[in-house]
Request: fold
Amino acid sequence: MSTSTPTTAIEPISVTELGARSILDSRGFPTLEVRGTLADGTELRAAAPAGASTGEHEAVELRDGGSAFSGRGVNVAITRLDDEIAPLITGRRWSSIDEVDGALAELDGTSGYRRLGANAVVAVSILATRAFAHAAGQPLHTWISTTTGADELLPVPHFNVLNGGAHAANALDFQEFMIAPVGAATEREAVDTGAEVYHVLRALVADRFGTAGLGDEGGFAPPLADPREALDLLVEAIVEAGRRPGTDDVAIALDPAANGFSLGDGRYRVGDELSRDQLVDYYLTLLDDYPIRSLEDGFAEDDGDGWTAMGEALRRPDGSWRVQTVGDDLYVTDPARIRAGAEKGWSDAVLIKPNQIGTVSQTFAAVATARELGMAAMVSHRSGETVDTFIADLVVGTGVGQIKSGAPARGERVAKYNRLTEIELDRPGLRYGLA
Reply:
């Protein structure tokens, strides 16, 4: 297992009690919340999110099967945590998060944490990270910065304000239509801008379609089928909110999540059936017509030829990329897969989701790999979220400068954005923006 190398001495931790319970995520399905008590009596918690649109190579959640919750219960994972993980973690001193995560991987003994469940493992790893920060007397984001050697940076939020694909019951093939306040001067201004545009968009959607129902990530899910209609709505909302649609003020980001509309054999369905080359051309026309700064998962995770074609089309003669091109399902926060994709020229950016890879130390390694290769990174939530705010501290501490956590609405989404503005309030002068 590839892990990060701490840059400074770390205060050891000792966990005296560790247990878990089942809680509901934002889609109403069970997930794990882990509770731990440290030797000094401090109580900590951490919760595991869950994705609806998942990559084939992600770390594996342990689910119960059966009829309850369509098989998505987590009682088996809780039992494994209580019977195996808790005895491992409690009653000894741990010197680093690498040590904790390495012991969890050894205890599991499988690839992708199939035996213990990545949902149990990631929650314990996050709790241990909080414990190390507490032992050091540092805010979590500062401890992460110190441990990884990164400069802290408040990120540009990418708000998913129109939902499609696996996240909504409409005919939109593309999964996420996001706005990014790249021109904001502070995190507070960025969050307020996102909320203002969101409310204008709500009025437009309600007026045009007679409803303003939401998708999984808090974005609106109107009865649209054409991505251009969704993009036109975004541009209109940005303008009506008194902002400029563009990469110097409020830009647009897309996550087509092409796994969801791949027909196999290099064929895709976006309204009509498209070949690889036709899909590349389609993306190019969208980039010509709309202020798009980021394009994520434009091709299926198993379509290397598609990623190659897109990379060739989007790279300028000087080697720079016309638009940030992000791999999510393609890389699943795996350092080895990130390195392979960079060598093949598939993208210049990677999405970072701790539960995709399983532990915090592996997440640090994924960020470090991307940075070493000159790739950008964006920290991300999952569609099945909790009010746990770990990723907000993670994005600030690793200094990658970008986060997506859904719409500026719903408690599990705004918890992350509110945490970012809290960090800014506590750390006046901390820089905001892209890395």
About this structure: The chain has a mean pLDDT of 95. The CA atoms of residues 132 and 349 lie 29 Å apart.
